[in-house]
Amino acid sequence: MKAGFALILVLSWLAACCGNRFQEAWVMNCEHTFPDGTHFDLGPLTRTAGRPDYVGRDKSGNNYYINVCNNVQEIPHECRVLQKDIRAPVYQVRNDSFCHWLGLEGSHRWDLIEPGSPFVGVQLTYMDGEYCQEGVNRQVRLQMYCDHMGRLGSVADYYVTVEAPCTYVVTFPTIHGCPKDLRWSWGSWFDVLFFLGVGLYLGVGIAFNMNKYQMPLGVEAIPHIEFWRQLPDLVKDGVAFSVDFVLVTLGGESRRPAAASSGRGYDNGPRGEAAEARGGIKTDGP
């Protein structure tokens, strides 16, 4: 009897303190392919356990609590106070502490931000939000702008805008707003930047040599041409040195030719050998 009563108390406490937090047993499929084959995957943007919801703000100071392809992790306190604990992906909490849910996770639509231009980004619209005084249900558009380099900031860096009637627009720059098949990896960026750098080096260097030193267009006009001619031999020497170093380190014999005598006498006795073992050279002396 006491154990059952204690269990009821524990469950009641959990419901009271944590009832505002919930985790969905499933997450909406966050991938979409348009008729032309363009494919987007917003799954990595979904906030799950342990990761707070996104927060945006409009110019009036109203806050917006946002998740992508799932309901928010925590219903705002202001909504719970007003008993508006509808599970929704986006909530608006006004600066007067009033609360609205702006759409339902089960009512969504995919569009390109600019029709015919997938490189701009993709738009996820949640519909069937709370009824507003204009006579329509609220809805919210999450506009995922394609940000290859991650330099456009985050959702918190842009104001949420309101379009009549009762339509809210959230600016959301992210690499996941780029078509999946067209996203570039760091390796792709390295390749592009490498060949771009080589092209600039050759182009600027050849132009400089032709203008300043009146060199004709050809191999001799390549910048640092003597270095590039010696590079194969330098690489060969470097490889040979590395192999020799590894062999000596592992206790083997060096394959490099012995250095020529400098004219100084070498003591081949025990003292001389000991000196050589320490890396020193014993010279003649008293």
Report on the structure:
The protein has 286 residues and is α+β, with helices and mostly antiparallel strands. 29% of the residues lie in helices and 18% in strands. It contains five helices and eleven strands, in the order H-E-E-E-E-H-E-E-E-E-E-E-E-H-H-H. It has a five-stranded mixed beta sheet with strand order 7-8-9-11-10, with no helix packed on it. The protein has a four-stranded antiparallel beta sheet with strand order 3-4-5-6, with no helix packed on it. The chain has a two-stranded antiparallel sheet with strand order 1-2. Strand 5 and strand 6 form a beta hairpin. It is elongated and about 90 Å long. The N and C termini lie far apart (103 Å). The C terminus is likely disordered.
Oligomer: single chain
Please state the CA-atom Rg, rounded to the nearest Å. Answer: 35 Å
Order of helices and strands: HEEEEHEEEEEEEHHH
Helix run count: 5
Main beta-sheet strand count, sense and barrel state: 5 strands, mixed
The share of residues in extended strands comes to 15-25%
Shape descriptor: elongated
Q: What share of the residues lie within helices?
A: 25-40%
| Arrangement of strands in the largest sheet | 7-8-9-11-10
First and last CA, distance: 103 Å
Low-confidence stretches: 4-26, 260-286
Per DSSP E runs of 2 or more residues, the count of β-strands stands at 11
Sheet/helix structural class: alpha+beta
Give the rounded overall mean pLDDT.
80
